[in-house]
Design a protein that fits this description.
By secondary structure, this protein is mainly alpha-helical. The chain has helices spanning 2-24, 45-56, 58-61, 74-79, 81-88, 104-115. 54% of the residues lie in helices and 0% in strands.
Length: 121
């Protein structure tokens, strides 16, 4: 009887620790650090960033497209720049959704624009 009770208590203890273990893993994860890029020239919002967003993102994130965030002007793109670069790099989900990843050269342009202060030039 003592042996059965000991086994029951041990199993109960293991079950309790398993139940509480997942709650310790629900902490929000920090996005991975972006790889360092070297920016050799100033990136232009109007001639490089806006056309890239229009061509690759506006189908889903344009005015009236129904997907948030809307990325139709400098203020909206600038406000979402960190999330955009993470999504372009596949964190948490690769964008553009359902399409091929953008060329690394375009992703680096966007990251340079971000590093250069998100200028509206």
């Amino acid at each position: 009887m003592k042996k059965t009770l000991s086994i029951f208590l041990a199993l109960g203890s293991i079950s309790a620790s398993v139940l509480f273990l997942p709650s310790a893993c629900t902490k929000a994860k920090t996005p991975p650090a972006l790889p360092e890029v070297t920016c050799n020239s100033t990136i232009s919002f109007s001639t490089q960033i806006a056309p890239m967003i229009e061509e690759n993102c506006a189908v889903c994130h344009g005015v009236g497209a129904g997907t948030s965030p809307v990325l139709s002007n400098h203020a909206e793109i600038s406000a979402n720049a960190e999330a955009i670069i993470q999504a372009l790099r596949g964190t948490p989900q690769l964008m553009p959704q359902g399409g091929p990843a953008l060329p690394d050269s375009l992703i680096q342009q966007f990251q340079c624009w971000l590093q250069q202060g998100r200028m509206q030039n």
